[in-house]
Amino acid sequence: MDVTGMTETRKIAKVYKSKPTIEGAGVHLKRAFGFSQLPSFDPFLMLDDFRADTPDHYLLGFPWHPHRGIETITYMLEGTVEHGDSMGNKGVIAPGDVQWMTAGSGVIHQEMPRGNSSGSMGGFQLWANLPRTHKMMDPRYREIKSGQVPEVELDNGTRVRIICGKVHGQTGPVRDIITDPEYLDVTIPSRSEFVYPTVQNHTVLSYVIEGKGYFCTEKKPFSYDQEGVNYFDMTRDPLLGNGDLVLFHEGDQIIVSTEQDPVRFLLMTGRPIREPIAWYGPIVMNTNEELRTAFEEYNNGTFVRKQTGKSGSI
Question: How many domains does the chain fold into?
Fold first, then answer.
């Protein structure tokens, strides 16, 4: 709140265009943000959009690889991902399902995408950092089926799927996460407005996955910086669409509105960690010495410290 007690609406700090890249054994995806944007999205590290309609772009998948010091959150829209890990967990993530894996002290796993009947596959993977005090915590694995994710419908027809967080008295199935995050899938109908309260000093970002919407009350396309657009572009559209990532300034709420098209976006918030980051590949620690230790342990077979970590109650 400001000194007058009025609610402060968050303005756009910057808009990023997701960029094509190839990861794993040859998976074509779009990266919304990652290493080069550190620490702007703290406590989040990376967001990948792996929607694809060509099987050759995803079937090779992400074979066995390690993680330490982070959480990986996978949310599926189409197709499936077959997975397995060093804790003995295995299964299939289907449309609407979520896998929230806390790597902690170390997990080795694989993720192999499979398309639907028309060959389409798609979802998102978010990486969240862990603070120094929890980098080496016991790994945790949670698989949430689509039916376990509550959805609320607001008076104007806006629908919100709640993976993590609380909306209108409904709480998402993923709880007790260190950085107090929220993860929502929001769909706003045409000619409507969505007002959502946010915690002061928490990082807030949105990633558009369908339609178009205004993410700034001024509706001025040149009132904020956009990365990935031509410097001399004089026809910038204030309506943001599929593949656009919004990072917000400080404030107490966000307001998103639509015109003739509806909009669907992922909304993520979390408490910043504000610690040094040493990051190489799938391992994120605080110091380079900790990174060296992690890779030495991986090479000599002592990386995985906890052999079991079955999915428990959510």
Answer: 1
The enclosing domain of 264 has a CATH number of 2.60.120.10
Location of structure tokens 């979390």:
270
Task: Give the residue numbers spanning the domain of 151.
Answer: 12-300
Per-residue model confidence (pLDDT) at position 233: 61
Closest by Cα among 167, 139, 160, 251 to 201: 251
CB count within 10 Å of CB 189 equals: 16
- Is residue 307 scored above 70 in pLDDT? no
pTM value is 0.94
pLDDT tens figures, 156-174: 999 999 999 999 999 999 9
Instruction: Report if residue 273 sits inside a domain.
Output: yes
Residue 266 lies in a domain: yes
